[in-house]
Amino acid sequence: MDTSNPAVFVNAELLQFYVGRRVRAVMQVVRSEGGVVIGKSTDEKQLVVKGPPPPAPLTNFVEVIGIVDNDRSIRAEIWTNFGNVIDMFSYNKLCQLANGEFKHLFV
Amino acid sequence: MFSGSQFDATTAFSGGGFMASQSTNLNDSSPSAAKSRETQGLIPVTVKQISEASHSGDEKSNFVINGIDVNNVTLVGMMFEKAERTTDVNFVLDDGTGRIKCRRWVNEAFDTKEMEEVQDGMYVRVYGHLKSFQGVKQLVVFSVRPVTNFDEISFHFIDCIHNHLHTKVKAEGITPANPSSGSSLITPVKNASNGSQEPSSNPGYAQYSVDGLKDCDKLVMDYLQQHSDMSDERGIHVNELSRELKLPMDKIMLSLKTLGDDGLVYSTIDDYHYKQA
């Protein structure tokens, strides 16, 4: 049992609080160029994800687990394809709850 | 005591294997059987919640989360370090809040087949039983399923939050009448009375109905009791009860009828005003 390396649920707005820490975020892939994937976060802001190239092909929605570089970009460690349909609103709400009132259940 | 129309969850679900047979006071008006008072059937949790769980009594090797005995849990996370052996499959589940060792015993072809479908790096939903082995909490898993619709991940964590709130509200709702500085006794979300709940040290705590009343009835009784000196002979209007206790009107009226049948309350000037007997 090891809770030393959690990955916090974040949207773009919360990234700034976790610079240098491990997070997880779901985003809609906008475009992928070179070693960088540009996406739209669950709260409609742009996210830039760098790091080792994702296992092609990427579905419309992906989850990125990695370390936060700055308040708009993440350095990916793990990519997970989340398919072509997902409820961004619920995920966004979850991010807000998991970082707010119920943070003690998560980190 | 228990009216005949009550849903008796003990007999209905005793064969399910999820309900502890110890609890006999299951006269909950809600038909949802998973929400028993003393031992919940199956609760969604995060690894972080498990890591903070404490042991309940000595004989039972049960854990306590949120003051509720926990038997079976469900988690959603990513599988790592899958190690297949002849009789079992071990793996680590990482749900983003922590990692926990899991073991799935493999007895039949079905079990092997189920485990073949999940690989490292996949999101899975597990159902299992919490166990402590050499001081380390582990999960004995009896079902592993790959996640195909990823809304399940959001759902699971929201479910954890919901369940946490639900048990917290229940825990506070059944605390014996304890008025504190005149503030409303029952507040759905924030705790107005007791600060820290220590139900594991008080075996009578989980008995939400002290004298056979349903919890809604008790809320109404407590409110009438609390306000009996402040109200005049007209008693309390049902609208006030509904508003202050934040319960729907039909529940209030049902409770008042039950209490009236038992002779604990009576209506005063009309059918909408009640007083404690």
Question: What does it look like?
Answer:
The complex is a heterodimer of chains A (107) and B (277). By secondary structure, chain A is mainly β. Chain A has one domain: OB fold (Dihydrolipoamide Acetyltransferase, E2P). Chain A has 2 helices and 6 strands. The model of chain A has no long low-confidence stretch (mean pLDDT 89). By secondary structure, chain B is an alpha+beta fold. In chain B, helix 5 (215-226) crosses helix 7 (249-261). At the A-B interface, strand 1, strand 5 and helix 2 of A face helix 2, strand 6, strand 8 and helix 4 of B.
Numbering strands along the chain, what is their spatial order in the largest sheet of chain A?
A: 2-3-4-6-5
Rg over alpha carbons of chain B = 23 Å
Low-confidence regions of chain A: none
> Structural class from helices and strands of chain A?
mainly beta
Total strand segments of chain B: 11
CATH class identity of chain A: Mainly Beta
Strand ordering within the main sheet of chain B: 4-5-6-8-7
Q: Under the CATH scheme, which architecture of chain A would be assigned?
A: Beta Barrel
CATH hierarchy: architecture of the largest domain in chain B: Beta Barrel
Number of domains of chain A: 1
Radius of gyration of chain A: 13 Å
CATH class of the largest domain in chain B: Mainly Beta
Unreliable spans of chain B are 19-36, 175-210
State mean pLDDT of chain B (0 to 100 scale): 73
Mean of residue pLDDT of chain A? 89
For this entry, what is the oligomeric state of its chains? heterodimer
User: Greatest interface and its residue counts?
Assistant: A-B, 31 and 29 residues
In terms of DSSP E residues, the strand content of chain A is 35-45%
Q: Work out the helicity level of chain A.
A: 10-25%
The CATH topology of the largest domain in chain B turns out to be: OB fold (Dihydrolipoamide Acetyltransferase, E2P)
Protein name (chain A): Replication protein A 14 kDa subunit B
Family (chain A): Belongs to the replication factor A protein 3 family.
Organism (chain A): Arachis duranensis (Wild peanut)
Main location (chain A): nucleus
